[in-house]
Amino acid sequence: MRNEETIKQLLDAIGGADNIKNFEHCATRLRIIVKDDQKVSKEKAENVVGSKGYFFNTGQHQFIFGTGKVNEVYQDFSTFVGDREEDKSNFKEDVYANLSPVQKVVRILADILVPLIPALVTTGLLMGIRGLLLELGVNFSADWLSMFEMLTDTAFAFLPVLIAYSATKKFGGNPIIGIVVGLMLVAPQLPNAWAVAGGSVEPLKLFGLSIVGYQGSIFPAIIVGWLVSYLERTLRKFVPQIMDLIITPFLTITITLALVLFILGPILQTAESAVISSIIFLVEAPFGIGYIIYSALQQAIVITGLHHSISIIEIGLLNASGTNVLQVLGTASMAGQFGAAIATAFLMTNKIKRSNAISAAIPTLFGITEPLLFGVNLRSLRIFASGAVGGAAGGLLTYILQLSATGMGITFIPGLLLYTSDFGKMIQYILVILISFAVGFICVQLQRKAIIKEIA
């Protein structure tokens, strides 16, 4: 077993194998839920060999190992510990039991939206490729442009279908019924929401309400998933089994569609528009104040785990304006923390600690910041604050340049692909990263004596 020493130290830190209630892993972290948190030694947990950081959040003791490495450690951990009394499939239930109501809502949204990110990232990359080809002067016929529009627009046009499927699956309903209702929300018989917004098409008038399609809508589709799941469970309590195959789907689809189209949908669309407008208003506050605040604190949002919900706002921004400034500001926030972490690594005299710090920082280049945050920057408030100042500087520059992305889901170096259609904007994007990095780096250097004492 390659990670035997790591596993032994980890078990010692959490109070032994008998104290384990459940465990799982994500892209970078081994997550452990224990029976008695009082038996966990924070000091030992922070010094587990091979771990790049430790923190406790939402009832989970989380050890940072990084992409790839965490899978290896998890397998060895599972082999060493053996089967738990609890069913490993109930890990999410154990997690939810430790969450506050607000955290539960955020986690539900994340569980619904995160599976969609690969599709949205792919769409963003395809937009970048199309923009690059056009920038290089490639001439496309109308047919080829239509083909590219199919590749780049489909995911957003049918976004309610994807969300309805994911939400129905999350809430325990029949995902196929969720897909059917989602398709009805964007059916060609309903006036296209974007066409109505552009003034080229009039909405349907039913019961005195203006009815349009739900292209790009988020919350109505989530409600669809919940309603489908709830109605299925409720109807099966009194619908005879012999009629279940016909009656339950029929009533589920018709009731859900009626509620969404005529009651909940219009309300949610209005509320969704108001929330997006409020975020846009904040970001567009005078003198770049919103940009500065967001880019300074975006990584603090990552610490809380609320960053998954940002995708909702990004999707709304893209649907509303076709651009996404949060991608730039998020990258600036990452670059500031990256600069602070690299500067801190250079202050470390211990070669092993310096190597670990640099290793924890490298994934940030690809948009993964948890190893950096929990392994380096959060060890000292001065380091994290330095990174926040760097992010704020990048946010101010973003405001001055009026820079924004045309996609979402990728940041830092991969985010360059979102700017291939405009070489000038790509240079500006790189400049934002460099300024954020430099300011974060310099702020740490200005406090080097105090920080050395804290990390020694």
UniProtKB/TrEMBL annotation:
InterPro entries (UniProt xref): Glu_permease_IIB, PTrfase_EIIB_Cys, PTS_EIIC, PTS_EIIC_1, PTS_IIB_1, PTS_Sugar-Specific_Components
Location(s) in or outside the cell: Cell membrane
Keyword entries, A-Z: Cell membrane, Kinase, Membrane, Phosphotransferase system, Sugar transport, Transferase, Transmembrane, Transmembrane helix, Transport
Official protein name in the record: PTS transporter subunit EIIC
PROSITE patterns, per database record: PTS_EIIB_TYPE_1 (PS51098), PTS_EIIB_TYPE_1_CYS (PS01035), PTS_EIIC_TYPE_1 (PS51103)
Catalytic residues (UniProt): C26
Top-level taxon: Bacteria
Record domain PTS EIIB type-1: where: 4-87
Primary subcellular site in the record, as a coarse category: membrane
Ranges that cross the membrane: 108-132, 144-164, 176-194, 206-230, 242-268, 274-294, 326-348, 426-444
One protein family per Pfam: PTS_EIIB
PTS EIIC type-1 domain sequence ranges: 107-456
Membrane topology: Multi-pass membrane protein
Native species: Enterococcus eurekensis
